[in-house]
Amino acid sequence: MKGKNNLINTGPNVEFLKDYFDENETHTIRDYIKIIRDNLIPVILISLGVLLLSILYAVTAKDIYRSETVLKISQPKGNILDAPLLPEFGNYGADRFIANEIETMKNITIREQVARVILDTFKAAGHKDKFAMIFKSNYFSSDKDSIKTVYEIADMLEDIVSIEQKRGLDFIELTAESPSPYEAALFARTYANVYHQFNLLDNRKQVTKIREFLAEQRDEKLEELRIAENKLKAYKLTSGSIELEEQAKSLIETITDLEAKLNATAIDMAISKEKLDQYKSELNRIDPTLSQYLENKASEPYITKLQEEIAIIETQRDRAIAGVGKSDKGNSELIKKYDQKLKELKDKLKKNVQEYQATILAASPEEIKELTRKIFEEEVMYNSLKASHDRMSEFIKRYENKFNALPAKSIDLARLSREVAALEKLYLLLEEKYQEALVNEKSTTGNVLILNEARVPRQPAKPNRKLIILIGLVLGLGLGFGFALMRNYFDRRVKSPEDIEERNIELLAWIPKIEKFTVNGTGEGSEFIVAKKSDSVASEAFRALRTRIRYSRFDKENKVILITSSAPGEGKSLVSVNLAGSFAQVNKRTVIVDCDLRKPRIHTIFNQKRYPGFTDYFVGKVSYEEIVRHSDIENLDFITAGTIPPNPSEILDSRGMRSFLKKLRAEYDIVVLDSPPLVTVTDAEILSRIVDESILVVSANQTDIDLMEKAVYLLKRDGRDTFIGVLLNNFDFKSSYGSYYKYAYSYSRNGESKAKKKGVFSK
User: Fold this and answer.
1) Largest CB tally within 10 Å, which of 238, 299, 669, 761?
2) Tell me, what DSSP letter sits at residue 643?
3) Residue 513 sits in a domain of what CATH number?
4) SS3 helix, strand, coil % of the chain, rounded to 5?
5) What sign does the dihedral 735-738-742-747 (CA atoms) show?
6) What gap in Å lies between CA 362 and CA 529, rounded to an integer?
7) What is the pTM of this model?
8) Per the domain annotation, does 455 fall within a domain?
């Protein structure tokens, strides 16, 4: 039997993983098949239950349609505020940018805007049958047409709209689901369009701000121009027709030209200041101390001096262009000299700026180099514009002094004419810059391109009913098998011979489950298997048990054998009768005594009355010859329990019991005692002290392992050596020991057939 230790190992151990995956154990498919066979009904019920649920779900589940659109996202160029601040390693920067865009798309602001557009579309469409998910589910109200609010639709979009990057590319796949195909396409299309518009406005925000500033300034100057023109017109009407002198006209033209350029420089300064404030705001968020450092660097004395010189030359050049005090030929020569001087000064400024930039960028962290470069360039530009503005203001003051020296009769008209001319030039300049900003704004396309519009799907995307049913089948089988494994793990019953041997308990033999059969058309005597069906595997197992008992000990004579069990119903009486019959078949004078004085059964197996029995002999009511009965098998006698006494333990532990056993030893070769369960009462423990050998019967799939170990401990307590082993009863060995069963059964059948032909068992 020990050679089969690895055939079956279904007993639980301390740890579940150790029980099934111990490196010293070998589990075969047969082991798991046996577990499934032992739990076949629960496995089938669980599998069928899960399968039926999956079929029910597959049949009743709504069709869900899926519509998708693909957006191409490109990183913006030339806008430092949108550029990544971290250095790019491989494609990390692009992936991070796409991830940021996806999070932007999932923002509640975008979803709320999408919800508003969807509600507007629903109101304009007027086809309620094309919509499904924008309606509320009112289980307790008859109003089935109530529409969700903007916030409820926005929350719903978070669950039904999927936004993912497509295989690591610069593409975003936007997918929407709905029971209505039209609604699914509407969700996806609207979401993509709203985000596209949001991205477009976000990319235009800088040029839009400049355009709005120029529009405001243009409208303001236009109104001032109208007021100035009305004043000039009114003055001419009230003062009569007054013509300005040539000197006054030339002076006014020069002043207005300079004022127009001064105003243009002021506008450029305002635009540059706006950009600079944005860049500094972003830099302050990263490093507040660096912004002041860059401002100080941009105001270095040498750079400031070059800017002032450039401003002076530019002002003198503008004055020369205005033609003050020079001939046309002389002005052209002078303008060329100024241009040459300006080119030299600007080259020097550019060279020094680049040197300062290199110094700043070398000392700056990598992630803010681009931002610091932009701030430094814009700071230099702003300082240059400011220097030009200051110098031009000084020149205008000189010309204003000359203007104030004009004759009194011409000065009012000249002032009004000058104001109109200056405002007109300024308005035209603002209009030109406004139109340029408007073109720049319209030409900014953003960095999102919708590659394909969401289309109305023709076929539902889910549920996949076949797959659901298949998953239900697989899941049901898995849960059923898992239940079988867990049930086997927590099952603390003895199931196989290995469960006994693994606990260092001697295993004498195992008796297979005895199939019921009829004797003379009835079931009487069917438990006496060795007498009624000697060619069975069970009979062969009892003969094997007999052999092992005979050769279990050689040091002393073993006549009295105690058969007990740990709990009731484990088959000890059946084992006692068949073991005794097996000894009788080898010409051993054998007697079986029913010592279970509480629930005796020996008389029912032999189909006899319980009275008189050995308890009646003890009290002197009957003689010894009256309690000894003969069975149908030669050499086999049996003694029933007799009248059930009120004190069984005292009778079994009496001197009379020892004398009775002594008498039986003298008359019989083998004495078999059928006793009560060991753990239930103390009768069997008392008898184990006065017998030669004790055998514990356990029933497969019934006896608790802990109970078995407790019974073995009781039989071995106080140093007793009468215990010779455990007998496993009702063991279904066909699935585990199939080949053994086949050959043993075939061999025993052939042997019995030959014996019958020779008349061995004939009466």
Assistant:
1) 669
2) S
3) 3.40.50.300
4) 60, 10, 30
5) negative
6) 102
7) 0.52
8) no
